[in-house]
Design brief:
By secondary structure, the chain is mainly alpha-helical. It contains nine helices and no strands.
């Protein structure tokens, strides 16, 4: 998925230059238990640095994003599969790398990450996981989950989980559009080895 880096259209502000309101807009992205440390710390400082240019928008989007990350009724694994597939379909390298780095924290192993890129027809997915991945493809192509895919999802997931599937894909579709349109540069910790 790696592409040749292009110059940023919006240069990320370094944290020392963030207005106070931009720092406050990060609060919804912090886990309820406090700021993670070590390998589980959030990645994506350049994305946050671009959002710091528009604190009111950052607060609104981060509040929505925080709900998706910490208030979702989906398991971390299912949410991560949706995000990785959205990154694949939208060719969003920044988002892909960010979530490959966090996949293990959400019970998605490296072989499964590779299979997400192949898609819902790759072998070894459960029926539910295949439907989750297919729902991403359908939502991003048609803005609607097909009846067949919905039937599989609704056979296992509860109402709130069904809603979270749609809103998770939507939230990350918006993020993919922003990251790609603004040409947000990869952070050093997201660069390929």
């Amino acid at each position: 998925m790696a592409a040749t880096p292009e110059p940023p259209r919006l240069t990320p502000l370094p944290p020392a230059e963030w207005p106070k309101a931009a720092g406050e807009a990060l609060a919804p992205l912090l886990p309820p238990t406090g700021r993670p440390k070590g390998p589980n710390r959030p990645k994506g400082l350049n994305a946050l640095g671009v959002l710091a240019r528009y604190p009111a928008l950052a607060l609104a989007y981060n509040t929505f994003s925080g709900q998706i990350m910490y208030g979702s009724s989906l398991s971390g694994r299912h949410r991560e599969l949706l995000v990785l597939r959205a990154a694949t379909v939208r060719n969003a390298d920044y988002m892909w790398r960010q979530h490959v780095a966090s996949a293990g924290d959400n019970d998605v192993d490296p072989d499964e990450v590779a299979r997400v890129a192949v898609g819902p027809d790759a072998p070894e997915w459960s029926d539910l996981e295949r439907a989750l991945l297919r729902s991403v493809d359908e939502l991003l192509a048609e803005a609607r989950v097909s009846d067949e895919t919905w039937a599989v999802l609704a056979g296992t997931l509860e109402e709130h989980q069904l809603m979270d599937v749609v809103f998770t894909v939507g939230a990350y579709d918006v993020l993919a559009m922003a990251l790609r349109s603004f040409a947000v540069p990869l952070d050093d910790d997201l660069q390929a080895p």
